[in-house]
Write a structure and sequence with these properties.
225 residues, alpha/beta, Rossmann fold, four-stranded antiparallel β-sheet, 7 helices, binds adenosine-5'-triphosphate, binds magnesium ion
Length: 225
């Protein structure tokens, strides 16, 4: 999988029986290895665009392509397989499962992918936790971790299946400056090491500037800045 693109995307939501447009005429292409930031005011449509590109929501008009596969033309099960094998997600809030420890949280995508607990998966999770400085936290439940540690676990979970594209929706929005810098560096390092494309939504100009291309959504349109 090398490319995600969208053609003539129009997206609106219904409010009180009225059609409220959020995105209009959006054309974008992201290739393996790219690092793009999507910026814009709160409510501009950044999260909506990320959801559309990942196939987690449907455009009102237009198409999203993964390589040359039209996402709308494949079943939701096939779309899930694409996400499981090729996409990773990190959000502002970590969304870790509170009843599972750090190791188990990171193992989940491997279990979904391979449907069993292989020795390879266990080694893989151990390695990633080590790489992200979380080995000593492996047996801990999420509530015992700091905000920065939880976000690092969320990153480990997002990359455990070797995604080609990492969707980051304000991944540092809930962190203090020190942890934000740590998480930013970690994401960039992982992207370079594993050749993962980054699709980042952020209000942080400093983080956006570390991407190769910066887009801004304004008045439902997107422009490179
Ligand atoms: N599921 C939904 N149903 C109705 N309206 C929605 C839905 N999701 C988003 N919207 C609306 O679409 C617009 C864009 O929302 P979105 O969350 O994409 O903005 P954003 O740029 O990510 O904002 P923020 O920076 O605050 O995260 C907002 O006006 C929001 O209210
Ligand atoms: Mg958002």
């Amino acid at each position: 999988m090398n490319n995600i693109s969208c053609k003539n995307i129009y997206k609106s939501f219904q409010h009180d029986n009225e059609d409220m447009p959020v995105l209009d005429n959006i054309n974008l292409s992201i290739t393996k290895g790219d690092k793009i930031a999507i910026t814009g005011a709160s409510g501009a449509g950044k999260s909506t665009l990320l959801q559309l590109l990942a196939g987690l929501d449907k455009p009102s008009q237009g198409n999203v392509f993964i390589d040359d596969i039209d996402l709308q033309a494949i079943s939701s099960i096939e779309q899930s397989k694409v996400r499981l094998n090729s996409f990773g997600f990190v959000y502002q809030f970590h969304h870790l499962l509170e009843d599972l420890n750090v190791f188990e949280n990171v193992l989940i995508p491997q279990q979904l992918k391979y449907a069993n607990n292989s020795h390879e998966s266990v080694i893989k999770v151990t390695d990633i936790l080590d790489q992200l400085g979380l080995s000593s936290r492996s047996k801990h439940l999420p509530w015992k971790l700091s905000g920065g540690e939880k976000q690092r676990v969320a990153i480990a979970r997002a990359i455990i299946n070797n995604p080609h594209f990492l969707f980051l929706d304000e991944p540092t929005g809930n962190l203090d400056d020190e942890n934000s810098a740590l998480v930013q560096n970690l994401i960039l390092q992982i992207a370079d090491e594993h050749k993962i494309a980054l699709i980042l939504s952020t209000h942080d100009t400093n983080f956006a500037n570390k991407m190769n291309t910066i887009y801004k959504i304004n008045n439902r349109n997107i422009k490179e800045v």
